[in-house]
Structures are given as C-alpha cells and as structure tokens.
Design goal:
Layout lengths: L9 E6 L12 E8 L4 E2 L2 E5 L7 E3 L4 H7 L9 E2 L5 E2 L4 E5 L6 E6 L10 H4 E8 L5 E5 L4
Antiparallel strand pairs: 1-9, 2-3, 2-8, 2-10, 4-9, 5-8, 6-7, 10-11
Length: about 140
C-alpha cells in the first residue's frame, strides 16, 4: 500500500524598506512568517538580499525575549521537550541593521498545516529589530 505524498506549501515574498538614518551594523533584524492556525513560526525559511549583504537563516535564542515582550509573537518562545531541554520553534531570516533593500524570502509551511485559503488571516509576517543596546521592536507587516 502506498501513502500519498502531501506537498508542502510555500509562501514567497519580498520585503522592501528604507534603512533608518540611525541604523547600526550591530543591530539585527529578524523576519518571521507565522502560521496563525498552528500558532508557530514556519519550520523552514530562507532569504537573500542584494549582492554584498549577509542575509541568513536560523534561530537566535534572543527571540524568546521577543515572545515575552509581544504577546502576539508568543509562538517564538522556546518549546519544552519534556526532559528539561528546549528546542527552537521554527526558522527566521535575519540581517544586519544596515542591510539594504530588498530582502526576498521563501517560507515552507509545516507538513501538518492545513491548506492556506486566506493568506492575510492564515499567516502573519513580522519584522523584529534587536537593537545593539538591548532594545526590542516588532511590527506586524500583515496588518494593512
């Protein structure tokens, strides 16, 4: 008996922005795609910026601080494994505060995610700034 292979859904986007005048290369931006139906960030995400920029993907333990500060980003909190250890809830795309626009990204949704029927309500896109001075700022880019 064969089991049908369920295709993975992807969300592709491009973030365009103006670099703030007071931007520091020591600041870090993080871009998240959150599946609102599962209340968690996507498990896989990749990004690319203009030539010469260092856009990367992965997870930073500081994202747990973002989850504590912004209730709408609670899904960014570390996930307990039950044995006293923790794991990351997903993947983000990150870049320095002086990175120039655009940043193009692809987010692969969880294989457990139901089909996306309304991207604006099913998914949220969040941009977070982790300042070199310890400040944290977040904006929901999905809200029009």
């Amino acid at each position: 008996m064969s089991v049908p292979l369920r295709s993975r859904q992807e969300a592709v986007g491009q973030l365009t922005f103006t670099v703030p005048a007071n931007a520091s290369p020591d600041d870090q931006y993080a871009l998240f795609v959150i599946d609102n139906r599962l209340h968690q960030p996507v498990p896989d995400m990749w990004g690319v910026g203009p030539v010469g920029t260092n856009v990367g993907q992965g997870w930073d333990g500081r994202y747990g601080q973002v989850a504590r500060k912004y209730s709408w980003l609670a899904g960014l909190a570390p996930v307990p494994l039950g044995d006293g250890n923790w794991t990351d809830p997903g993947t983000a795309v990150s870049f320095r505060g002086t990175t120039t626009s655009p940043v193009t990204f692809v987010a692969v949704l969880s294989p457990d995610a139901p089909p996306v029927t309304d991207p604006r309500s099913d998914l949220s896109i969040a941009l977070v700034l982790l300042g070199h001075n310890g400040s944290i700022w977040a904006q929901n880019l999905t809200v029009g």
